[in-house]
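Collaboration report, partner site 2.

Our partner group contributed sequences for two proteins of shared interest, and the home lab folded both. The records are reproduced in the order in which they were received, starting with the first partner submission.
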Amino acid sequence: MNKVCSSPTAITTLSSDSNGAKRDFLLTSVRSFVVFILWAIININSLLDPLKTFYGYYMSMDSSNQYAVWQLTETNNFNNESSRVCSASGPFLDCFFELPVYGTGSLAGSVCRSYYPIDKRPLQHVGNFFGNCTLPNGHQIYIPDGNTYATTQWSVQTTSYDGRCLDHLGEGLSFTCDSYTTINGRVINYRVSHTESYKWCKEFGGYYILNLLTNVQEVLIANVSNPNSPSFTSIELKDTPPVLSLDRFIGCPAKLYIGGAATHITTSAWYGDTIVPWTAQTTRTANSNSISKNGSLYFVSTSHYTEGGMTQIRLGYKDAFRLTLLFTITFYRISSIYYPMWLAYLRTHESFMQCLLHRHMGLVLHKRERRNLLILFLLALEAVTSTEDIVMNCQQVVYAGNSFITLVLKYMSITRIIWPCAFLLLLFTRTIEITIGPEYAFAMSEDLFLLGAPVVWGYIPLKVTNQGMKLFEGYRWTGKYINHYTNSIYNAYTNQLSCFSLYLQLFGLFTCISPITTIFIDWMWQTYTQHPSIVVYVLSSRQRSYVKLPNKNELQMSIEYVLANSTEGFVPNIASQITRTTLPHTQLCESINLAAEGFICLVYGPINVLGMINWGIAHPIANKLGHVAVINGKLVSFDCDVTINVLASITSKPAYIGLIDIK
């Protein structure tokens, strides 16, 4: 008997191969798990899309839900050696006012001199109080000093139902205004009255001075009720709420709003105007100052910190219009995508988790709607109509300290601007199909989202916030004793744009460039990989092979051939993409992926027919000769003996059942 001996080298090789196989298996398992989690997150997001959108409509209606922090730093140079007293007619540069202080703040009873900088910019919105105060005991203090006092210059709004009450505090004229009560009970005065109104508003600037030792802030407001004897009124701000009663100061009912109201954006549309004012939520304003000597000047850096929120004020017509769009889109998804998928799932006879793990095959849940011009138009229309929401969310992801979940929801809302891109891409595809020929048409909308979303998340919020004061329309210069570029509702509609114009101004370039970039990248991808979709390739947990049908007879008994030669308008490229997802062991087209495209099985007595469902109503698939696509076992083909008339003679109401895996 011959004895077979194994060399040590062979043993080592076998051991090495075994370790390599284990490592490859582990890497494959980890990759499959990561891909599955990614796929699950994307599709859960798609399923929850209507709820997220509806929740976003609700959230934008109250500033309590739309937190936004303005944290700004301004620098100016002051001359406190050779400045002159300011002229009442301006310019308010390199000069000062010296006025007595009355009121309840710590500076009451003193005389304060406030300097204007030598280099204040024409539209500088944030300033500070720089000067000195002589206390009643004769002691002189310098504000700010970097240790005891921090100052800033910010806006104030006063309101009353008696216009004469507003003459006592602040500079400028009062005007009738409209107010809005949010869903959480916040009252916002947001524009000059457009109709009969009993409320009066006044807006001006104030000096906010924070005592860093006691952490108590006060605001100095110019009092010109006696034009011959102007003064400052100091109001202590102990309470956190930014609305204070002025009854005890002026003897009649009035309210003071810290920060006033800054008009964020105003748009017009056929369903009415939309206005987004920003209002403060706390009295916190002055944060810190740093002072350094610059020759004969003082260089002052002012850190301003204000916590607030944005409220979208709109007519109910806008919400009714958007909800109609949302309901239409949701009904289409349920009746034309989810319903056939549910029927197909029932025929798999697998548990839900088994089906998810073994059959997801990189499925993109809403891929069908991305080839539907009507649905894409409705989605694009909803995105344009929600321009104000998108702009608000862009501001908040940059400026607000959102929680992780809130941040994710806002980024998802911003991603809506890809829908108009997808609509343009599909419109371009249909144009090519009509003008050049169906063989040149393509479907790339799935990859548009994959390639466009990172750009949207990283670039669009920065682009919007970099617009700076261009987006903020409600500002105007007020006062002389406190000359300030004030948060204003008086000029709320000065630069009003139509909703569509604002969308084009902010996102128009991206909407045009994104489809072009996607076409180029997808063309390169398909040229070098021979794979039709980046998304399906990335989200697929396993490699799949594609079997080339060997002869004409077998080719005609495939679903790809049926779709390409049907009257449904599937161009060859799209028919190929729809049927590329095959099970690895059987090479059959996976049924739930086909169902996501709207395909179902219609039962006419003994005949099973391939059908397509739209808006809940199904019809058989046929070719130009009227022959219907009949399912026999795992094969589907056009049967010359079966026509619509033949099926109608059997029954007018076929049974709807799910597809099985077919060739």
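Second partner submission, folded after the first:
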Amino acid sequence: MKTLFKSKPRIPAELVRHTRDLLVYVDANPKPRDGKRDEKMIELCKYIRELKFILYGDNKTEPVADACAQLTHEFFRENTLRVLIVCIPKLNLEVQKDATQVVANLQRQQVNSRLIAADYLEANTDLLDLLISGYEDMDNALHYGLMLRECIRHQCVARYILESNQVNKFFDYIQNPNFDIAADAIKTLKELMTRHKSTIAEYLSKNFDSFFTEFNSRLLSSPNYLTKRASVKLLGDMLLDRSNSATMVRYVSSKDHLIILMNLLRESSKNIQTEAFHVFKLFVANQNKPPEIVTILIANKRKLLRLLDDLKLDKEDEQFEADKAQVIGEIATLH
């Protein structure tokens, strides 16, 4: 007879409470191969999957806004988010994946038209410290990275990371010998440095020298291809953003920065050369070039013209060719 009836679905708040209780148990009983713990882990896996279903739906079912709001409210009301993040290393891989997606989705959920995750994280910044340092955990770095990027959607989170001087940690993480972790850290740094325009503009204005000294020496000068290519592209993204126009003018007025970009133009990798060109052209286009910039460009005129003439993309790009022609013309007229 049991098969004739479906089990009554749990209400979201109840589901969150049960999940929290199981997480607390798992956290307090980390010993593997414990029969009771294994049972709890199986149960926890099922509950977290149910949470994920409520938030994401599936191929046949769309998420229900009211259920998502109830779930989200309960998650932050009793610190379940904290317990879940802290327990990530103690979960098995499949549960980790689902848990990571739950944390990520909660950053986008509104309750009474408010992103309550932002308020919670602003009041619990130690969780952000935990997510950032998660890049040092080789086994779980990608889970922490995904959650951190979703948290950076909140301006208060980005501001905290920037103002707490934790940007430099990413310069280390990006050079991790593990390719996947390094690539993930690059994605996170890009999100941090490009999403919130006003916050980044203010940060770069206040920390111009310290930030670019580290950025240039540790990333642009890195012997690692991935690091160098991604960092010069990120540099271009930052400088070409209108919100950072003051920073861009300041950057292209430095002879040291010009020398770095000229060296990047000489790289054997066409990808790095191309990304470097998009920054180099800003030095040339500057209508108020400092005398030392003009002097360097004139001294290297022949080499630069030859190098730029040889720089060609695999696919035809009219805008690139137009930019290149303009740069070549500008350099050719310098004297």
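Feedback sent to the partner group on the second submission included the following. The chain has a mean pLDDT of 92. Residues 45 and 169 are 33 Å apart (CA to CA).
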